Amino acid sequence: MGSSFGVRLRQERLARNLTQSELGGALYSASYISLLENGRREPTVEIIKQLSLQLQLAPHSIEEWMQPISAEESGYLIASLYARQCWDTRDYVGAAQSAGAAAEKALASHDAVTWWNMAYLQANSLLRCGGQAEALEVLQALLGHALTSDSDALTLRTRQSMSSALLSLGRLPEAIEEATLAVEIGSGDTDEEYTAYLIAMQTLVGALAEAGDLEAAWQHCLTLAEAVTDATPSQLAGEIHWVIGNVAFIRQDVNTGLFHHAQAGRLLSPTQDLARWAQFNKATAWVRLAAGIVEPATLEAIERSELAHSVVGATRTETLEVVLLRARWLYLNGDMTGALALLESIGSERETLATHIAGDTAMLLGKVLKAQDRTEEALAAFNEAKARFTEAGATDKISQVTESIVEIESLRRSGSRSGS
To answer: Over 50: is that where the pLDDT of 2 sits?
Structure first.
């Protein structure tokens, strides 16, 4: 009995990112929870009550774990534990594969709760290793399930992840819609639900900023800023400052951007999550360059991002985005030859980038070519950028690139009149 109960208990604890000490709360020690998970103690009525409160499950659901475990159940529970282990060691490909296998086996055994947890883990693992389109399919299946529709908390988490997937694919209006629906659910009644709400709001801010709706993005940033207190976990607080700083830079509020990114740099730890540290430095460099800040600190952010991505093993998309950063740096420093070489190295691989990032790549190429007086090629690049931005719904970028197109066409008309 204890073994069956312990396996399920460990699975549910890990699904909520709880330590043994957090699960035990003020009543039970971490060592006692460990004994339960290892089958060396049998659960009492009192401990079941405590676990039901901490895990937010009905007591009768936990009592069912004491039933003998079948071979089929053992198979998917072991697969689910391996998936969690892969996630903890940042083996996101392995986590996606194991979680997917566990979800299939759980579904075949009519274990809806384990299926949900593993499908959700599979989707988020896919997001971490560049499988956004596949993740979106899994998340859509989750959103249509009764477990999700009956729970605001699960709906919020699912829609937030869907928004992240859509944002990574450059489908900005849909990303905004999903994140808005997630945020509208509210902050919930528990710390876990409140954290999910804040993450959803960060995703919404990112999507709004990419779409060019900076006023709406900034209003949500003000809400996020008020949410940070001394009790906020450092990683979460750091990511909130990161998002706020991004929007401030894009709004040309450089001092505010510098302040919030300094706070983020202090709170985010490369030892805790090197991949996120790499992404933070990439984002820092990106928005600094967008604001025209060409100084040593910007180059340092690019170099930290390059180094961290090389250590953790970047996806191809992340690698291309870092190449684009370096190309933008060279362009702003007047090295058109170097910038062009990097942009040409991306070439047809622009198709692997999010639609709005592919648009940024084409727009930068147009600027480099224009600086080299290759106006016809520049015009073609600007038109490609406009098409990409239109597809993505990036209205602010459409206006920017349209100005470049109009300028070149005006010069062409002036040249034609002079020639005649």
So the answer is: no
Q: Residue 364: which of 348, 390, 344 has the closest Cα?
A: 344
Please report the sign of the dihedral spanned by the C-alpha atoms of residue 18, residue 23, residue 25, residue 31.
negative
Q: What is the mean pLDDT of residues 192-221?
A: 95
Provide the pLDDT confidence category of residue 407 given band limits of 50, 70 and 90: very high
pLDDT digits (tens, 9 = 90+) for 297-347: 999 999 999 999 888 888 899 999 999 999 999 999 999 999 999 999 998
Cβ contact 151:185 at 8 Å: no
Contact between 193 and 156 under an 8 Å Cβ cutoff? The reply is yes
Please list, in sequence order, all residues whose beta carbon lies within 8 angstroms of the beta carbon of residue 352, skipping any fewer than 6 positions away. Answer: 316, 317, 320
How far the first Cα of the chain sits from its last, in Å, is 94
CA distances from 191 to 33, 56, 141, 194, 225 (A): 21, 12, 26, 5, 17
3-state helix, strand, coil in the chain (%, to 5): 80, 0, 20
CA angle 356, 350, 345 (to 5 degrees): 135
Please determine, for residue 198, whether its predicted confidence score (pLDDT) is greater than 90: yes
Residue 176 is assigned to a structural domain of this protein: no
Do 384 and 333 lie in one domain? The reply is yes
| Backbone torsions φ then ψ of 68, nearest 5 degrees | -55, 140
Quickly list H helices, 214-354: 214-227, 234-250, 254-267, 274-290, 296-312, 316-332, 336-346
Based on the fold, state whether residues 358 and 389 are members of the same structural domain: yes
* Total tally of structural domains belonging to the chain: 3
What is the span of the domain harbouring residue 241? 228-292
**CATH number, domain with residue 404:** 1.25.40.10
Q: What is the rounded distance in angstroms from the CA atom of residue 60 to the CA atom of residue 68?
A: 15
Residues 252 and 340 in one domain: no
Q: 9: domain CATH number?
A: 1.10.260.40
